């Protein structure tokens, strides 16, 4: 098992495909309560950074499903899986919530990094595959997305929490480290009770 925290620079990236940043991945995957052997779904895999980190945590006895609707992001996810030599992942090309029906498994945890416009439908569909005690973690930039996500989780009866994460990363200058702020991100998590 490898604990999450691969530096962003180690992933193959494309300018137009946004990535869930390292510190948010660490937090989101920790709040997912992943374990060796777990079944995990990443909705909106983008670069594949969350998918790769989750796959390394769950190991060969576990399984990760990744759903991505855009061709270029789907291909980038595949490239990063190849780069990190990750084999326990099934990448599904399609749009959530419909593509979630292609996941033929019972899940321990889900990360939602894309699909905010249809978050309620996505959560309803995820709920059908999530184990009791399983967790859903979502990140959001917009206040509206965060509110919609937390209220949809509450409607499902989940035990829910929301945090806002503000990270500043040190940049080395000739005089010392200057802290450069990153955009604040909401992280919402819910546990199926
Ligand atoms: C913010 S990026 C996710 C970043 C990703 N977690 C990473 O670390 O690279 C959102 C991604 O979700 C995808 N997406 C958005 N809505 C989606 C949907 N309904 N179904 C599947 N993918 C979706 C987008 O194409 C985009 O690649």
TrEMBL record:
| Source organism, top-level taxon | Archaea
What's the catalysed reaction?
Answer: Co-precorrin-6B + S-adenosyl-L-methionine = Co-precorrin-7 + S-adenosyl-L-homocysteine + CO2
- What Pfam families does this protein's entry cite? PCMT
Keywords from the named record: Cobalamin biosynthesis, Methyltransferase, S-adenosyl-L-methionine, Transferase
GO molecular function per UniProt: protein methyltransferase activity
EC number(s) per entry? 2.1.1.196
Gene3D superfamilies named among the record's database cross-references: Vaccinia Virus protein VP39
> Which pathway does it take part in?
Cofactor biosynthesis; adenosylcobalamin biosynthesis; cob(II)yrinate a,c-diamide from sirohydrochlorin (anaerobic route): step 8/10
Q: Where does S-adenosyl-L-methionine bind?
A: 20, 44-48, 68, 96
EC primary class? transferase
Residues making up the signal peptide according to the UniProt record: none
GO BP terms: anaerobic cobalamin biosynthetic process; methylation
Among InterPro entries, the record links this protein to:
CbiT, Cbl_synth_MTase_CbiT, Cobalamin_biosynth_MTase, SAM-dependent_MTases_sf
Annotated membrane-spanning segments are: none
Enumerate the HAMAP family for this protein.
Answer: CbiT
Q: Of which family is this protein a member? A: Belongs to the methyltransferase superfamily. Archaeal-type CbiT family.
The protein here is known as Probable cobalt-precorrin-6B C(15)-methyltransferase (decarboxylating)
Q: Which organism is it from?
A: Stygiolobus caldivivus
